[in-house]
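Lab notebook, bench 4. We co-purified these components, and the gel suggests they stay together. Before we commit to crystallization screens, I want a quick structural picture of the whole thing.
Request: model the full complex, all chains together.
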Amino acid sequence: MEDLRLTERLVGTDEVKIQARGVNVYYGESHAIKDVDVDILDKTVTAFIGPSGCGKSTFLRCLNRMNDTIDNCRVTGSIRLDGQDIYDRSVDPVQLRAQVGMVFQKPNPFPKSIYDNVAYGPRIHGLARSKADLDEIVEKSLRRAALWNEAKDRLDQPGTGLSGGQQQRLCIARAIATSPEVLLMDEPCSALDPIATAQVEELIDELRANFSVVIVTHSMQQAARVSQRTAFFHLGNLVEYGETGQVFTNPRDPRTESYITGRIG
Amino acid sequence: MMEGKVPSEQHILSAFDRDLEAVQALIMKMGGLVEAAIIDAATSLEMRDEELAERVRKEDRQIDELEELVNEEAARVIALRAPTASDLRVLLSVLKISTNLERIGDYAKNLAKRTSVLVQMAPVGDSGGALRRMAKAVAEMLKDALDSYATRDAELAMDVRIRDRDVDQMYNALFREFLTHMMEDPRNITACMHLHFIAKNLERMGDHVTSIAEQVIYVVTGHLPEESRPKGDRTSLVTDGEEDE
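Here is the predicted assembly.
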């Protein structure tokens, strides 16, 4: 006889999407990420938690080479997406970012219509062959981002006219319009109210059917609610990485325990 | 909350609902096993069916394992979802109900153990039938308590709580009966001691079911019933050779 564990906590696959080995990041002299090894699973929400300045955002930005844009930033070690080294010379960072999408802390829609916000990525990457094709991508992305019903009658209106929560879902729609394989989210709910936050969290839970999602959050409760895997960073080290339920009920490292119970910041 | 909108029963984050349902489903499953254990244990006693008694003893393990699982899962939901208000009450009730169910399961197992001893001895009166009727009353109370939990029916839970008095009275009657048998013939003492413990354990099961019913009332209303429990067990007042009415 089998007893069902809380199923949504379980990960449907153990396929590694992103494999990081010996990753070090330096900003000039300062050593921001220290020798991090991590396997990020496909079709799983992975949360990065840790106090401010612990390196979680820095590490997240390594995953789609956003750190390339910072002058004095140096990344060593290897990060492989489906086995392919993303820091290899042959990799085009623009192409990479279409595969590894990103959503930021503050909703940042382009000053364009809702439609054009979503259509922007597919257009520049040449993913649509016709207007009908593009319409379909826009509708599908907005539906997946749970925004279609609210936006379908105002597609030509500016994205900036939406509410904060809607804007964030628009940014998620924009990020998934290029059919990425991985979605990186840096504090996607910190500018949202609790209801909009819950809606985005519900969306994240649905997205994991198709994507590997990595989310950086200051809210431990959010990490607990949405993720299946949690990584705790502290002073540039990856202290603990494990199944979210285990990390929050029985962490292995005393530093993790201290952080999640509110004893160190 | 939007104006004029009735609060939804569902959480926006639907995984929370699935978690809550999953833990409660474990409780219902555990309850079903415990109910069967009570009936089977009492049947094994009446029918002097050692095999059935043995099965009840073995299957108690499953109940114990489920209790552990419920505790783990409830702890997990509390840690991950930070439940509040009615959600918190549900999780607290889950923890308490699983403890009660586990205890009832242990009593059923003990009944089955004593059955294995009793079948070696001559039967005493018609106590097997009386004990089975008592077990049936307890099992029915348990079934209703679990139903009231599933349907959030505080009235049914209240009714279960009141019915515990009947079980107490059955115990009183059996207590006297066993006393009489023992006084009549000291050779009955061993069997009667076992039978008395069985009756007492059934009476305790009724108390645990009452606790479960009280948890249902707590989940639904937010507080435990105020009036004291109806009590029918007066055997603690029985003195030597004298009726206590």
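Chain B has a mean pLDDT of 91. Worth comparing against the SEC data before the next meeting. DSSP finds six helices and no strands in chain B.
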